[in-house]
Amino acid sequence: MATNLVGAADRTPARDASSSTSSKEGRPSPDEIAEVFEDRLRAGGVTSYADAPEFYPCVGQELYDSDLTDEELQSLMAVEDPAVFQDFADATVMCTPEQVTSVDGDIHGEGKEFSIGSGMTLRFQVRADQLGDPEPILPGVPVEQSDYDYSWGDAVETDGQVAVLTVTVRNDGDATHSDNGAFLELLSASGKPNTGSAGMHGTLDYPSDPFSTDDVAPGEEKTFIDVYPVRASEIDQVKVDLLLIKDMGAGKSFTIE
Prior knowledge:
The protein has six helices and nine strands. With about 260 residues, the chain is of the alpha+beta class.
């Protein structure tokens, strides 16, 4: 994203170097980058980060630590167009302050549907399942522990017990959204992410499409299924954490219970 930002900067008229931070030699400091970033957004009328004082220092550090060269950063600091910096701010998930929306509902029963904005709704449902016995890696050879390790993945530690998360994305609006992205995690009762993999090699007859909110046409819906290693006794305690890259009208961060 930082590279794209500099690419946009190369197509944007720069201010007089004598009045810019970029007139200094070497790599701009994180504080200098943060100051310029804030100045440009404020010049463009952006005040949405006024209540998040940690945002600009975070962006300054991110750009400072990026792969951009000193010259590229100096060039960026000389750009005056606020739109260049706004695009980066919109896509900076690590720094953007999150307003978490808590969605209460029976995701362990009939499921829970809610709006993420722009006519888009998501429906979440979690249920328990048991991975089937794996086939031997080598035909004709008795099933061994290595076969379980290979086909069950991290679910070996839960004796093949898994949580099956079904997400249905429905578009009730009048536009197809193709410029957003989403991160999905299953959380334990303590809030710890469950990032393990399970059923990777056909032990469950489920589709393996990665979850996405993109390219669902108006009036249509798509269903995605993720499988996580979770013991059946803990299924009722898990929650779902959803983070959208862009706000579609109802927020970016959601916790679904």
